[in-house]
Amino acid sequence: MADTTVERRLVLASNNAGKLAELQALLAPLGVELIAQGQLGIPEAPEPHPTFLENALAKARHAAAASGLPALADDAGLCVAAFGGRPDVDTAHYCTQFGYPKSDANNVRALLEQMRDIDDRRAAMVSTLVAVRSPDDPEPLVAFGRVEGLIARAPAGERGFGFDPIMFLPAFGCTFAQLSDDVKNAHSHRGRAARAMLALMRERWWPSQADPSSASVS
């Protein structure tokens, strides 16, 4: 049988502090130490692909090759129904096409401007997580998460990041940015993907441990 032992340190192929905090909390039951690639001096990988899956895989392989450690990558974005699913993989840079410097606040501003006269506010936030044991791992772990909502007419809430202030969830009657961290993690696109990834890691990477959270980590 092939050796599937994996270090309990994972490099996160991102320097996004919000993603790091969310994923660290969501993967806590595994006793994993998640390290942002920037802490190791690893530059961001190019993301030239048209799908979340391809970009996440490229980022995970890049971080694993540069660090020598297993790596986890998240490629996530906003898909707006009225825009045919865009901005999709270009979510983080959405505002730059309208002349604004890249920032979360400008992304929100640009989207609200573009949707000012649009009544169809349906949108989905999606997350694709990919984990690899090495850059040449022939069997990457892949998990998906998706949550549907509506684009609000104005920002609301101080929590979260990205488009959270305008992603309105009818089931809760508020935006993601108005939810507590625990509630958001339980229902967000990234939360759903992370729970699926946690299950995959338990099954594929630590199959001998029925409950990795109860084991000591060296």
TrEMBL record:
The active site is at D75 (proton acceptor). Its EC number is 3.6.1.66. It comes from the Bacteria. It catalyses: ITP + H2O = IMP + diphosphate + H(+); XTP + H2O = XMP + diphosphate + H(+); dITP + H2O = dIMP + diphosphate + H(+). GO terms for molecular function: dITP diphosphatase activity; ITP diphosphatase activity; metal ion binding; nucleotide binding; ribonucleoside triphosphate phosphatase activity; XTP diphosphatase activity. Mg(2+) binds at D75. Pyrophosphatase that catalyzes the hydrolysis of nucleoside triphosphates to their monophosphate derivatives, with a high preference for the non-canonical purine nucleotides XTP (xanthosine triphosphate), dITP (deoxyinosine triphosphate) and ITP. Seems to function as a house-cleaning enzyme that removes non-canonical purine nucleotides from the nucleotide pool, thus preventing their incorporation into DNA/RNA and avoiding chromosomal lesions. This is dITP/XTP pyrophosphatase. The gene is rdgB.
